[in-house]
Amino acid sequence: MNISATIPDERVADVRFTDTALVVELKDGRKISAPLSWFPRLVSASPETRAKWELSAAGYGIHWSLIDEDLSVEGLLRGYAAPAV
């Protein structure tokens, strides 16, 4: 029997937003979607500010320097919301 398995790659490939959600695409093709309301700094930020993200933690995190917000892939996969500011 031959079993084909995909090796997970949980590094961030892309980040985008809908009107109500943060959507993070991982390098292995998975997409994580979380309510934007879980992230008070992102909710308060303009669309232009939200678009200015950068990778952190070797691709396992996302950083928005303009609003001092950091999210980890692990936290998103576990369903953790950001603490209230």
Polypeptide structure, described:
With 85 residues, the chain is α+β, with helices and mostly antiparallel strands. The chain has a single domain (12-78), classed as 2-Layer Sandwich (NE0471 N-terminal domain-like), CATH 3.30.2020.40. It has three helices and six strands. The chain has helices at 40-44, 47-50, 73-78, and strands at 12-17, 21-26, 31-35, 54-56, 61-64, 69-72. The strands form two sheets. The protein has a three-stranded antiparallel beta sheet. A three-stranded antiparallel beta sheet has the order 4-5-6. Strand 4 (54-56) and strand 5 form a beta hairpin. The mean pLDDT is 92.
Kindly state the number of beta strands: 6
Query: Helical amount among residues, as a percent range?
Result: 10-25%
Rg (C-alpha, Å)? 14 Å
Quick one: CATH class? Alpha Beta
The domain count comes to 1
User: What's the shape?
Assistant: elongated
Q: Helix/strand/pairing class, anyone? A: alpha+beta
| End-to-end gap | 53 Å
User: So, the CATH homologous superfamily?
Assistant: Uncharacterised protein PF10387, DUF2442
- DSSP helix count? 3
For the residues shown, what is the average pLDDT? 92
The fraction of residues assigned to DSSP E strands is 25-35%
> What sequence of helices (H) and strands (E) makes up the elements?
EEEHHEEEH
CATH architecture: 2-Layer Sandwich
